[in-house]
Amino acid sequence: MIEKLHSSWKKVLSEEISKPYFEALEKSIDEEYKLHTCFPKKEDLFAAFNFTPLDKVKVVIIGQDPYHGIGQANGLCFSVNPDIAPPPSLINIFKELNQDLAVPIPNNGDLSRWAKQGVLLLNATLTVRAHEAGSHQKKGWETFTDQVIKSISDEKENVIFLLWGGFAKKKAKLIDSEKHPVLMSGHPSPLSANRGYWLGNKHFSQVNEILKGLGEDKIEW
Protein backbone atom coordinates (compact mmCIF):
# COMPACT_ATOMS: atom_id res chain seq x y z
CA MET A 1 0.00 0.00 0.00
CA ILE A 2 2.60 2.55 1.09
CA GLU A 3 4.71 2.02 -2.04
CA LYS A 4 2.12 4.12 -3.88
CA LEU A 5 2.89 7.19 -1.73
CA HIS A 6 4.86 10.00 -3.43
CA SER A 7 8.54 10.08 -2.43
CA SER A 8 8.34 13.66 -1.05
CA TRP A 9 5.78 12.49 1.51
CA LYS A 10 7.59 9.23 2.27
CA LYS A 11 10.65 11.25 3.24
CA VAL A 12 8.90 13.47 5.78
CA LEU A 13 6.63 10.67 7.05
CA SER A 14 9.26 7.91 7.17
CA GLU A 15 9.15 7.69 10.96
CA GLU A 16 5.35 7.59 10.98
CA ILE A 17 4.97 4.84 8.38
CA SER A 18 7.49 2.68 10.25
CA LYS A 19 5.43 2.67 13.45
CA PRO A 20 3.60 -0.53 14.52
CA TYR A 21 0.14 1.08 14.22
CA PHE A 22 0.74 1.87 10.54
CA GLU A 23 1.85 -1.67 9.78
CA ALA A 24 -1.35 -2.92 11.46
CA LEU A 25 -3.37 -0.37 9.48
CA GLU A 26 -1.89 -1.59 6.19
CA LYS A 27 -2.76 -5.20 7.02
CA SER A 28 -6.29 -4.24 8.10
CA ILE A 29 -6.97 -2.21 4.95
CA ASP A 30 -5.52 -4.91 2.67
CA GLU A 31 -7.89 -7.40 4.30
CA GLU A 32 -10.84 -5.02 3.92
CA TYR A 33 -10.19 -4.63 0.20
CA LYS A 34 -9.97 -8.42 -0.19
CA LEU A 35 -13.22 -9.12 1.67
CA HIS A 36 -15.37 -6.12 0.75
CA THR A 37 -15.91 -3.51 -1.91
CA CYS A 38 -14.00 -0.48 -0.69
CA PHE A 39 -13.29 2.99 -2.02
CA PRO A 40 -11.40 4.67 -3.51
CA LYS A 41 -9.70 2.21 -5.87
CA LYS A 42 -6.46 1.05 -4.30
CA GLU A 43 -4.39 2.85 -6.91
CA ASP A 44 -6.10 6.13 -5.92
CA LEU A 45 -5.71 5.72 -2.18
CA PHE A 46 -2.87 8.27 -1.97
CA ALA A 47 -4.08 10.42 -4.87
CA ALA A 48 -4.11 13.59 -2.73
CA PHE A 49 -0.40 13.17 -1.98
CA ASN A 50 0.56 12.14 -5.49
CA PHE A 51 -1.22 15.03 -7.20
CA THR A 52 0.24 17.46 -4.64
CA PRO A 53 3.81 16.68 -3.52
CA LEU A 54 4.89 18.27 -0.24
CA ASP A 55 7.00 20.97 -1.87
CA LYS A 56 4.02 22.07 -4.01
CA VAL A 57 1.48 22.42 -1.16
CA LYS A 58 0.02 25.95 -0.99
CA VAL A 59 -3.48 25.23 0.38
CA VAL A 60 -4.90 22.38 2.49
CA ILE A 61 -8.60 21.45 2.55
CA ILE A 62 -9.54 18.83 5.16
CA GLY A 63 -12.43 16.41 4.71
CA GLN A 64 -13.58 13.56 6.93
CA ASP A 65 -13.73 10.36 4.89
CA PRO A 66 -14.33 9.29 1.27
CA TYR A 67 -17.71 9.12 -0.44
CA HIS A 68 -19.04 5.58 -0.06
CA GLY A 69 -21.24 5.35 -3.17
CA ILE A 70 -20.25 3.31 -6.22
CA GLY A 71 -17.63 5.08 -8.33
CA GLN A 72 -17.67 8.34 -6.38
CA ALA A 73 -14.42 8.50 -4.40
CA ASN A 74 -11.21 9.31 -6.26
CA GLY A 75 -8.80 9.89 -3.37
CA LEU A 76 -9.35 13.66 -3.14
CA CYS A 77 -11.64 15.09 -0.45
CA PHE A 78 -14.96 16.49 -1.73
CA SER A 79 -14.03 15.38 -5.27
CA VAL A 80 -15.73 12.74 -7.43
CA ASN A 81 -14.80 11.05 -10.67
CA PRO A 82 -15.70 13.00 -13.83
CA ASP A 83 -18.58 10.73 -14.82
CA ILE A 84 -20.30 10.97 -11.40
CA ALA A 85 -22.87 13.61 -10.49
CA PRO A 86 -21.48 16.03 -7.86
CA PRO A 87 -22.87 15.30 -4.36
CA PRO A 88 -24.72 18.06 -2.45
CA SER A 89 -21.68 19.34 -0.53
CA LEU A 90 -19.70 19.71 -3.73
CA ILE A 91 -22.60 21.50 -5.41
CA ASN A 92 -22.55 24.01 -2.53
CA ILE A 93 -18.79 24.44 -2.94
CA PHE A 94 -19.37 25.31 -6.58
CA LYS A 95 -22.20 27.70 -5.63
CA GLU A 96 -19.92 29.59 -3.25
CA LEU A 97 -17.19 29.66 -5.85
CA ASN A 98 -19.63 31.11 -8.37
CA GLN A 99 -20.86 33.77 -5.93
CA ASP A 100 -17.38 34.61 -4.69
CA LEU A 101 -15.34 34.69 -7.91
CA ALA A 102 -17.97 34.33 -10.66
CA VAL A 103 -16.45 30.99 -11.63
CA PRO A 104 -18.96 29.10 -13.82
CA ILE A 105 -20.38 25.92 -12.27
CA PRO A 106 -18.19 23.09 -13.66
CA ASN A 107 -19.71 20.29 -15.69
CA ASN A 108 -18.15 17.64 -13.42
CA GLY A 109 -16.92 17.25 -9.84
CA ASP A 110 -13.33 16.17 -10.42
CA LEU A 111 -11.13 18.50 -8.34
CA SER A 112 -7.80 17.14 -9.55
CA ARG A 113 -7.30 20.46 -11.36
CA TRP A 114 -7.09 22.10 -7.91
CA ALA A 115 -4.73 19.42 -6.59
CA LYS A 116 -2.33 19.94 -9.50
CA GLN A 117 -2.04 23.62 -8.51
CA GLY A 118 -1.01 22.91 -4.92
CA VAL A 119 -4.32 22.33 -3.13
CA LEU A 120 -3.93 19.26 -0.90
CA LEU A 121 -7.40 17.68 -0.72
CA LEU A 122 -6.91 15.59 2.41
CA ASN A 123 -9.45 13.27 3.98
CA ALA A 124 -8.78 12.37 7.60
CA THR A 125 -9.69 8.76 6.79
CA LEU A 126 -8.46 7.61 3.39
CA THR A 127 -10.68 4.57 2.77
CA VAL A 128 -14.25 3.40 3.33
CA ARG A 129 -16.36 0.28 2.81
CA ALA A 130 -19.05 0.62 0.13
CA HIS A 131 -22.33 2.07 1.45
CA GLU A 132 -20.99 2.22 5.03
CA ALA A 133 -20.09 5.78 5.93
CA GLY A 134 -17.25 6.04 8.44
CA SER A 135 -16.59 2.30 8.35
CA HIS A 136 -12.79 2.71 8.29
CA GLN A 137 -12.60 5.35 10.99
CA LYS A 138 -10.54 4.60 14.11
CA LYS A 139 -8.34 2.07 12.31
CA GLY A 140 -5.31 4.36 12.34
CA TRP A 141 -5.86 6.65 9.37
CA GLU A 142 -6.61 9.63 11.60
CA THR A 143 -3.29 9.20 13.44
CA PHE A 144 -1.49 9.17 10.09
CA THR A 145 -3.28 12.16 8.60
CA ASP A 146 -2.89 14.17 11.82
CA GLN A 147 0.84 13.65 11.40
CA VAL A 148 0.54 14.80 7.77
CA ILE A 149 -1.02 18.07 8.99
CA LYS A 150 1.65 18.49 11.69
CA SER A 151 4.40 17.81 9.15
CA ILE A 152 3.07 20.47 6.78
CA SER A 153 2.83 22.91 9.68
CA ASP A 154 6.37 22.12 10.85
CA GLU A 155 8.13 21.83 7.50
CA LYS A 156 6.55 24.71 5.59
CA GLU A 157 5.44 28.32 6.00
CA ASN A 158 2.43 30.26 4.74
CA VAL A 159 0.32 27.26 3.79
CA ILE A 160 -3.36 28.26 3.85
CA PHE A 161 -5.54 25.82 5.79
CA LEU A 162 -9.28 25.76 5.06
CA LEU A 163 -11.22 24.17 7.93
CA TRP A 164 -14.85 23.64 6.96
CA GLY A 165 -17.20 22.38 9.67
CA GLY A 166 -16.77 21.11 13.20
CA PHE A 167 -14.67 18.07 12.36
CA ALA A 168 -12.10 20.03 10.35
CA LYS A 169 -11.97 22.86 12.90
CA LYS A 170 -10.71 20.38 15.52
CA LYS A 171 -7.55 20.03 13.42
CA ALA A 172 -6.62 23.66 14.15
CA LYS A 173 -4.67 22.49 17.21
CA LEU A 174 -2.23 20.70 14.88
CA ILE A 175 -1.41 23.88 12.95
CA ASP A 176 0.96 26.68 13.95
CA SER A 177 -1.29 29.65 13.17
CA GLU A 178 1.63 32.04 13.56
CA LYS A 179 3.24 30.45 10.50
CA HIS A 180 0.13 29.59 8.49
CA PRO A 181 -3.15 31.39 7.67
CA VAL A 182 -6.16 29.39 8.91
CA LEU A 183 -9.63 30.12 7.50
CA MET A 184 -12.68 28.53 9.14
CA SER A 185 -16.35 28.34 8.24
CA GLY A 186 -19.33 26.04 8.39
CA HIS A 187 -19.39 22.86 6.32
CA PRO A 188 -20.68 22.97 2.72
CA SER A 189 -23.24 20.25 3.48
CA PRO A 190 -26.86 21.26 2.78
CA LEU A 191 -27.75 21.39 6.49
CA SER A 192 -24.95 23.84 7.27
CA ALA A 193 -25.20 25.79 4.02
CA ASN A 194 -28.95 26.27 4.34
CA ARG A 195 -28.46 27.75 7.82
CA GLY A 196 -26.09 30.36 6.44
CA TYR A 197 -22.85 28.84 7.75
CA TRP A 198 -21.27 28.19 4.33
CA LEU A 199 -22.41 30.45 1.52
CA GLY A 200 -20.74 33.83 1.69
CA ASN A 201 -17.53 32.74 3.43
CA LYS A 202 -15.48 34.01 0.45
CA HIS A 203 -12.69 31.57 1.20
CA PHE A 204 -11.73 31.18 -2.44
CA SER A 205 -11.10 34.88 -3.01
CA GLN A 206 -9.39 35.16 0.39
CA VAL A 207 -6.98 32.37 -0.55
CA ASN A 208 -6.05 34.14 -3.76
CA GLU A 209 -5.58 37.45 -1.98
CA ILE A 210 -3.24 35.79 0.53
CA LEU A 211 -1.30 34.08 -2.27
CA LYS A 212 -1.04 37.38 -4.13
CA GLY A 213 0.40 39.01 -1.01
CA LEU A 214 2.97 36.21 -0.79
CA GLY A 215 3.96 36.66 -4.43
CA GLU A 216 2.51 33.25 -5.32
CA ASP A 217 0.36 32.34 -8.30
CA LYS A 218 -3.34 32.36 -7.49
CA ILE A 219 -5.40 29.17 -7.68
CA GLU A 220 -7.47 28.86 -10.84
CA TRP A 221 -10.50 27.51 -9.03
What does this structure look like?
It is globular and about 45 Å long. The longest helix has 16 residues, at about 20-35. It has helices at about 5-10, 15, 20-35, 45-50, 90-100, 110-115, 140-155, 165-170, 190-195, 205-215; strands at about 40, 60-65, 120-125, 130, 160-165, 180-185. It has about 220 residues and is of the alpha/beta class. Strands 3-2-5-6 form a four-stranded parallel sheet. Strands 1-4 form a two-stranded antiparallel sheet. Strand 5 (about 160-165), helix 8 (about 165-170) and strand 6 form a beta-alpha-beta unit. The protein has a single domain (about 5-215), classed as Uracil-DNA glycosylase-like domain (Uracil-DNA Glycosylase, subunit E).
Task: Give the helix/strand class.
Answer: alpha/beta
Instruction: Kindly report how far apart the N and C termini lie.
Output: 31 Å
Strand content: 5-15%
The fold-level CATH name is: Uracil-DNA Glycosylase, subunit E
Mean pLDDT: 95
The gyration radius over C-alpha positions equals 17 Å
CATH uppermost class: Alpha Beta
CATH homologous superfamily label: Uracil-DNA glycosylase-like domain
Which bin fits the share of residues in helices?
25-40%
Shape: globular
Sequence stretches where pLDDT stays below 50 over 5 or more residues = none
Known CATH architecture: 3-Layer(aba) Sandwich
Number of helices: 10
- How many structural domains are formed by the residues? 1
Total beta strand runs: 6
Describe the strand arrangement of the main beta sheet, using strand numbers.
3-2-5-6
Largest sheet: 4 strands, parallel
Could you spell the SSE succession in H and E letters?
HHHEHEHHEEHEHEHH
